[in-house]
């Protein structure tokens, strides 16, 4: 049940992405020159080349390209939402997300040394692909029928935990990159550049206050944040269910903080946002690791054993 | 290159078709002895026509005030229904969703959502101001409430699609009259409203 709800939420995010592609700005050449081309900055030549190639393609045919982008993403959203087409759409979304991650996001700037989880690293597209795999319908062979947690579907529970730990340890490592713990790094990430352009006043104030609290304490903040992220990474391995659940709750709080304070909701206020950024996806993945209580996990099996042969639920 | 004109035209045509179809369905279902949810389906024809007018000048019908009053009244009615049927979670939920839909339509009419005569987009067109380091943003900023409406409608659409099955929307003991088609009309109206709100910003 929880997995289905998370799949529907993932479908909603894909649909939202598709609808955002219908903004007038997306049909102009500026989408290619201002939004896509920026992903090439600081990347190795082969990544930059891929981004530049896609930028040229979109700039040459902005209306056709954007119409296709919008239709594909809307179709993915509706396909994931509908039970009959869910598997096919999830599979297609992995392929599409991989393409967007390379050609549109420059691998989330992971190879540039500038990637910052606070501003969306490792990139929303990578998390879309990951979410599709983790929320795949069905149960892995050899897993408990009830599933230990929703993400233990296509992957076994152990592998799913490894994916979680790799993701959050990766975020912790990115937080400690020199560029992200340098003096003024947090203020620059949260309020610098075009981050606050177009925002309502109340929201800019909301971002400014925590950003200025970090001034002069960037290294300490980065260390504390990395420690929190490492705790989240370790939580699913905890033998105590309460600790695992606390880890899920902490992951959701961190994701929300990233989204509100660092990602500015994906910067939608100026009509140039392509997605709501990585915060909602991190928050979506967290409940997928919510362990079922032992009573709930054994209840279906007990009910099935007690049911007379041939009877249906 | 400009934002395509075909999109609002296409959506408006589809909306008018959906409005006509849902009206025909409401009128014909009693004659055929088939069931439908009159309370939930009755707002669809006016919602389709009103939303088409938000997208295209040629589809403009009534002034904004009557539409606003109509959907405000419908929203209040559904909100009251959500309270009165609170013992039935399914009906309460549906009434609340319809109330939200009416509220979003009221928002669209009150906030000036309408057909745009501007070609292209000014988003991202920043000019340097007189003082160093300052910029003037020539983009019209999106209202946060409009963005919230966009998010709500997107998630509403996927929830409708997720429960699309003949069994899921059958009404009463009588066979339901093309229940899937009316749900698809709901999704279409949600899409069109989202597009109308997103098009506020050029």
TrEMBL record, chain A:
<feature type="transmembrane region" description="Helical">
    <location>
        <begin position="123"/>
        <end position="141"/>
    </location>
</feature>
<protein>
    <submittedName>
        <fullName>Uncharacterized protein</fullName>
    </submittedName>
</protein>
<feature type="transmembrane region" description="Helical">
    <location>
        <begin position="162"/>
        <end position="179"/>
    </location>
</feature>
<keyword id="KW-1133">Transmembrane helix</keyword>
<keyword id="KW-0812">Transmembrane</keyword>
<keyword id="KW-0472">Membrane</keyword>
<feature type="transmembrane region" description="Helical">
    <location>
        <begin position="243"/>
        <end position="261"/>
    </location>
</feature>
<feature type="transmembrane region" description="Helical">
    <location>
        <begin position="185"/>
        <end position="203"/>
    </location>
</feature>
<feature type="transmembrane region" description="Helical">
    <location>
        <begin position="88"/>
        <end position="111"/>
    </location>
</feature>
<feature type="transmembrane region" description="Helical">
    <location>
        <begin position="215"/>
        <end position="237"/>
    </location>
</feature>
Automatic annotation (TrEMBL), chain B:
<keyword id="KW-1133">Transmembrane helix</keyword>
<feature type="transmembrane region" description="Helical">
    <location>
        <begin position="95"/>
        <end position="113"/>
    </location>
</feature>
<feature type="transmembrane region" description="Helical">
    <location>
        <begin position="65"/>
        <end position="83"/>
    </location>
</feature>
<keyword id="KW-0812">Transmembrane</keyword>
<dbReference type="Pfam" id="PF17197">
    <property type="entry name" value="DUF5134"/>
</dbReference>
<protein>
    <submittedName>
        <fullName>DUF5134 domain-containing protein</fullName>
    </submittedName>
</protein>
<feature type="transmembrane region" description="Helical">
    <location>
        <begin position="140"/>
        <end position="164"/>
    </location>
</feature>
<dbReference type="InterPro" id="IPR033458">
    <property type="entry name" value="DUF5134"/>
</dbReference>
<feature type="transmembrane region" description="Helical">
    <location>
        <begin position="176"/>
        <end position="198"/>
    </location>
</feature>
<keyword id="KW-0472">Membrane</keyword>
């Amino acid at each position: 049940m929880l997995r289905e709800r998370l799949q529907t939420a993932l479908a909603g995010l894909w649909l939202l992405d598709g609808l955002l592609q219908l903004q007038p700005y997306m049909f102009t050449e500026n989408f290619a020159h201002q939004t896509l081309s920026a992903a090439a900055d600081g990347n190795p030549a082969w990544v930059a080349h891929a981004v530049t190639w896609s930028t040229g393609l979109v700039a040459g045919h902005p209306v056709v390209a954007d119409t296709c982008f919008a239709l594909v993403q809307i179709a993915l959203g509706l396909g994931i939402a509908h039970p009959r087409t869910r598997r096919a759409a999830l599979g297609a979304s992995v392929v599409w997300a991989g393409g967007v991650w390379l050609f549109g996001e420059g691998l989330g700037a992971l190879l540039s040394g500038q990637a910052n989880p606070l501003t969306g690293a490792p990139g929303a597209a990578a998390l879309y692909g990951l979410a599709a795999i983790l929320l795949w319908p069905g149960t892995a062979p050899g897993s408990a029928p009830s599933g230990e947690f929703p993400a233990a579907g296509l992957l076994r529970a152990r592998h799913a935990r490894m994916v979680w730990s790799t993701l959050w340890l990766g975020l912790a490592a990115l937080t400690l990159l020199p560029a992200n713990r340098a003096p003024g790094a947090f203020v620059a990430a949260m309020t610098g550049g075009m981050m606050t352009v177009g925002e309502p006043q109340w929201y800019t104030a909301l971002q400014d206050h925590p950003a200025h609290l970090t001034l002069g304490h960037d290294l300490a903040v980065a260390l504390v944040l990395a420690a929190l992220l490492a705790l989240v990474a370790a939580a699913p391995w905890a033998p105590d269910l309460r600790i695992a659940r606390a880890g899920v709750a902490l992951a959701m709080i961190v994701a929300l903080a990233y989204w509100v304070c660092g990602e500015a909701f994906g910067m939608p206020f100026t009509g140039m946002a392509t997605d709501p950024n990585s915060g909602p996806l991190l928050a979506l993945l967290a409940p997928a690791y919510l362990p079922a209580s032992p009573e709930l996990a054994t209840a279906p099996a007990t009910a099935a054993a007690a049911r007379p042969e041939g009877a249906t639920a | 290159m400009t934002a395509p004109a075909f999109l609002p035209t296409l959506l408006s045509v589809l909306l008018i078709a959906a409005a006509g179809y849902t009206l025909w369905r409401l009128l014909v279902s009693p004659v055929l002895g088939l069931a439908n949810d009159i309370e939930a389906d009755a707002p669809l024809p006016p919602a389709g026509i009103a939303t088409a007018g938000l997208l295209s000048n040629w589809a403009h019908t009534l002034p904004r005030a009557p539409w606003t009053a109509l959907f405000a009244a419908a929203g209040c009615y559904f909100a009251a229904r959500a309270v009165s049927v609170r013992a039935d979670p399914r009906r309460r939920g549906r009434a609340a969703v319809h109330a939200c839909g009416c509220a979003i339509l009221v928002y669209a009419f009150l906030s000036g959502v309408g057909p745009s005569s501007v070609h292209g987009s000014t988003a991202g067109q920043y000019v340097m101001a007189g003082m160093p380091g300052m910029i003037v943003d020539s983009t019209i900023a999106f209202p946060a409430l409009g963005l919230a409406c966009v998010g709500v409608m997107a998630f509403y659409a996927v929830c409708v699609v997720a429960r699309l099955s003949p069994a899921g929307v059958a009404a009463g003991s009588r066979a339901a009259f093309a229940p899937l088609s009316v749900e698809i009309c709901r999704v279409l109206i949600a899409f069109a409203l989202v597009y109308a709100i997103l098009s506020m910003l050029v």
